[in-house]
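Appendix B, Record 12. Input sequence as logged:
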Amino acid sequence: MFSSPEFWVAVAFVIFVAAVFRPMSRQVAAALDARGTRIRTEIEEAQTLREEAQKLLADSKRKHRDAIKESEEILAHAKVEAERLREQAQADMDAALRRREQSAMDKIAQAEANALRDVRNQAVEVALAATASLIAANLDHEKHAAIVDQSIRNVADKLR
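Logged structural output:
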């Protein structure tokens, strides 16, 4: 056995493999450890990025909900304000119509009073003219003098 060249080749091969395996196994182990550490670091970074993305998503959703709520509040306020303005405009228009109606009624009443006064004045003038013509036609000089004297006495009595 010790004399056979195959035995010595086998022993040399085992020694060579043992001598090479030990440093190689350390390098392979170190490379695997480094790769494992790098992978672990990348996984941790990915988890961190995922958590940040989830936080940003949650924040974005919250902001979106807040914006929707705020827009709904603004819309509701705008509707209330529009209704108030519509009611105010209606009230203002009603008041203006009442003022115009009252003004028209006042003008009509004034026109009626003027017309009535004009008719009365016309009636008085017609009555005076008719009375004057009747008196002139039916009154002679003696009756005229008696009426004038009677009127003077009546005025004198009323002045006392």
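Helices lie at 5-138, 141-159.
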